[in-house]
Amino acid sequence: MHYRSREVVQVARRVPGTRAVGYDCDVLVIGGGIVGLSTAHAITRAAPGTRVTVLEKEPGLARHQTGRNSGVVHSGIYYRPGSLKARYAVRGAAEMIKFCAEYGIPHAVTGKLIVATDRSELPRLHALVQRGRENGIPVRELGPAQITEYEPEVRGLAAIHVRTTGVCDFTAVARQLGEASGAEIRQGARVVRVDRRPGRGVAVLTARGDIVRGRVLVNCAGLHCDEIARLTGDEPGVRIVPFRGEYYELARPELVRGLVYPVPDPAFPFLGVHLTRGIDGSVHIGPNAVPALAREGYAWGVVRPREAAATAAWPGVWHLARRHWRHGAGELRRSLSRAAFADAVRRLLPAVEDGDLVRAAAGVRAQAVLRDGSLVDDFLIREGPRTVHVLNAPSPAATASLPIGREVARRALGALADD
User: Fold this and answer.
1) Residue 270 lies in a domain
2) Does one domain contain both 146 and 276?
């Protein structure tokens, strides 16, 4: 297969061929999203015969971040050169398109526009051009007339066209990764306890009373990854703060041909309200970003007091609120008012009317926040004894899932070899 890295294969060769008696699997992966399933896929590709079990608490795969996003295969233009996000997104975008083509998964390479609508945004747009070039991404600068050649209804002072951006069905990708991995996948298996003892591997208890024993545990639990880390006895040093991203669907999809983004604010890790034509031809607008009152709080009415209290108890949340309250107030206003949301959209798409916006399914971003209120701006993977924790993998993690999976697999197989 195309997706075996030299580093993973080298570690895989050190894994003992014998299997310890009493273990249900060699590697136990918690989380059936695209990162967990990519990790399972990478492990079995690099070390055939390694027994992998994936535990997913939902009755189906890819129910949360993987299945509730815009479906964009990101180019990697936004991310700091040399960071994991930049390297994995650039590499992952190309690999994701190849993977989709190989398995017949719906996808398209559409390109996208990043549009400046105010003079104050022009320096940031020019900085993105430079960043894109440093990351090896082909970028074309456009003036107002050239913008309308790509998107007749979009208006702006200047733009850049990034041709390597695309769209795909990430849920289908996740399912294919799970199938191709050959791993045992247990759905409806919510982890409630983890027992890790010297020389005895890791034992997991699920809510329905099953005990699953593995030699190494990989934590890809997304919205609950910090909780799982603490169950193992490892202190993650971060807390997941859930941000709900709310979307609308455009009732007149003919207004948008492809993907159109605003110039992002570098102080905040969200890309702003953008326009996305999906693989089914529908156009989604969003997301905004508001604090969710539950880790899976896909609407204002979903409130889980224990989770909300635990989030509020993390000092970083209050530091973050003080630092970004003005930005947050604008996001909250757009959440509560369709007219305010439409006003934001009209900066890019003047022809849109309030009635063109139809509520669509929301997503929740699992954003890791440090104690001082800093947002973790890169993928974060940490290790403990016989454990590997993926502690920050929001967008563009779906795009970068194949390289991320290989990196996590490398670490898991290394732990397996040392066991």
Assistant:
1) yes
2) yes
* Structure confidence at residue 311 as a pLDDT band (50, 70, 90): very high
Record the tokens describing residue 177, joined without a space.
């990764």
pTM, 2 dp: 0.93
Dist. CA 387–CA 201, nearest whole Å: 10
Q: What percent of the chain has pLDDT over 70?
A: 94
Same domain as 248, residue 381: no
d(CA 60, CA 206): 16
On whether both 158 and 260 belong to a single domain, the answer is: yes
Q: Scanning the structure block, which residue is given the tokens 């010297």?
A: 198
Contact 30, 220 (CB under 8 A): yes
**Gap between the Cα atoms of 81 and 90, Å rounded:** 11
**Cα–Cα distance for residue pair 225/309, rounded to 1 Å:** 17
Answer left, alpha or beta for residue 188, where phi above 0 means left and psi between -120 and 50 means alpha. left
| CA–CA dist 213, 53 (Å, integer) | 10
Number of domains into which the chain is organized? 2
Taking the C-alpha atoms of residue 380 and residue 392, their distance in angstroms, rounded to an integer, is 5
Co-location of 186 and 51 in the same domain: yes
DSSP classification of residue 255: G
- How many helices (H) and strands (E) the chain has is answered by 11, 22
